[in-house]
Design goal:
- By secondary structure, the protein is of the alpha+beta class.
- It folds into 3 domains: 2-135, Helix Hairpins; 155-202, SH3 type barrels, CATH 2.30.30.60; 208-290, Alpha-Beta Plaits.
- It is 53% helix and 17% strand.
- The protein is built from 8 helices and 8 strands, in the order αααααββββαββαββα.
- Strands 4-3-2-1-5 form a 5-stranded antiparallel sheet.
- β1 (160-163) and β2 form a beta hairpin.
- It is rod-shaped and about 120 Å long.
Length: 311
């Protein structure tokens, strides 16, 4: 942090020095063959420099104060918004807007201290920004997409979301990337432009979550008994919600079983959807064993034919 501030101050000092000297000093063409003319020109440059030096110091002090004020005020605004439990995305957006607005206003004010042509500078900065916008389209897209994500709020910090092949918890959203922590503990940085243009599945937006469990029973099973035992067992589990009620339906005559689907609902704030099928499978296997309901599995029959021996 200290190195970055020092580098900013060094670049600012050189820029202000060059701009101020050129503004304060008007050097006429010098006859290099005349020592008196050279001496007069050097004296004029030195006088201009010493006249400009207080203005440059005042501009630098103002610029340093601006940096610290921007950091302090933006953090204070963020603290107040977090204390009032405001939306994290809006809090982050206001934090960035507050910080960069103060820096821009303070920089322009510091430049005015040295009679810098701010209007021409802003015009040139606009042309430079337009040129860089074409050269750095990807970065510009990510910044704009980051602002739109913070405004639209398709997800919040801490939400479990899925973007393409990435599923994880949202750790942060800045002006360039969205950071996720996947289920296997990896941190993934996804460009905001990719996040903004791709479908987003927000698993945390809805508290209730439907879990599907495909199963099958033997052909000689009593199907009505299978349905009663399955629904009674799944409704007895503490993590399964009564409303919406579990849904059971047969759908296919398989190769070796009659297949059905079991759908039940859980509260994702209490039960992990990834492991919700674990207690259900254990309870159903035990209930089927007590009711003599067979869960079949593929059987392969090997037939060997021995050739007739010849004398």
């Amino acid at each position: 942090m200290k190195k970055r501030v020092f580098l900013i101050l060094l670049v600012t000092a050189v820029t202000l020095l060059l701009a101020g000297c050129s503004a304060e000093t008007t050097v006429e063409p010098v006859d290099l063959s005349s020592p008196e003319a050279i001496s007069t020109a050097l004296q004029s440059i030195l006088v201009g420099f010493f006249l400009f030096l207080p203005k440059m110091l005042a501009a630098m002090v103002l610029f340093v104060i601006t940096l610290y004020l921007a950091a302090w005020i933006s953090k204070f605004v963020r603290y107040l918004m977090e204390k009032r439990r405001m939306d994290p995305g809006v809090t982050l957006l206001v934090y960035y807007i507050t910080r960069y607005t103060i820096v821009i206003v303070g920089t322009i004010t510091a430049l005015r201290q040295v009679n810098f042509e701010v209007t021409a500078f802003l015009a040139g900065l606009g042309i430079l920004g337009f040129t860089l916008g074409f050269a750095l389209q990807d970065i510009s897209q990510n910044v704009i997409a980051g602002l739109l994500l913070l405004i639209q709020k398709p997800f919040e910090l801490g939400d479990l979301i899925q973007i393409d092949d990435f599923t994880g918890t949202v750790l942060s959203v800045d002006l360039r990337t969205t950071e996720l922590r996947t289920r296997d503990g990896q941190n993934v940085l996804i460009p905001n432009a990719h996040v903004f243009t791709k479908p987003i599945t927000n698993f945390s937006r809805q508290a209730t979550w439907r879990v599907s469990l495909p199963m099958g029973v033997a052909y000689d099973s009593d199907l009505e008994l299978v349905q009663r035992v399955t629904l009674r067992t799944i409704q007895s589990l503490p993590d399964v919600l009564d409303d919406p009620a579990p849904v059971f339906h047969f759908h296919t005559f398989g190769d070796y079983s009659i297949d059905f689907n079991l759908h039940f609902w859980i509260d994702s704030r209490i039960t992990n959807p990834v492991t919700a099928t674990h207690p259900a499978i254990i309870a159903l296997q035990k209930a089927y064993a007590e009711a003599n309901i067979e869960i079949p599995y593929p059987i392969q029959t090997e037939i060997q034919v021995e050739g007739e021996r010849r004398p």
